[in-house]
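We modelled the chain as a single entity of 139 amino acids. Its sequence is:
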Amino acid sequence: MQPSDLQPIIDQLSVTDSESAYFGIFEIPNIVDEEYCCIKANSAGLRLYASSLLSAAAQLEEAKDTPNITSISLQTNVSWIDQSSEVRLIYVEPYGKPAAEIENGNAWSDKLFKVGCAVAGIIVLGLVGLGCLKLVELF
């Protein structure tokens, strides 16, 4: 979409009453070895945050031929964003690669490491079991 196509949507979302809006991003506790977050919001807060993101998207489109743009600020100090929010998105950084080229944290080397650890664990358990059998045979 072109910035001119986004502007009517941004304008429509921006007229949402900010007095009743609520938006925050919080970490989910008690999840082992992973970092997950959730959004706590009402519909007005989601509309205002969507407006902020669409505005950043329009600015990215307008500035895509400008190499010196390093970031586009998002709204942070507004009344409808919870000040105790654990995650604060403060800017959007332009990234020119398509999604298929973005490195994912779950690379094949990470999976191989997990499989290697599992195999090593099985070998250790097998050797411990074999050692116990040899001890029983001695007595």
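As a brief sanity check on the tokenised model: The mean pLDDT is 84. The chain has two domains: 3-99, 106-139.
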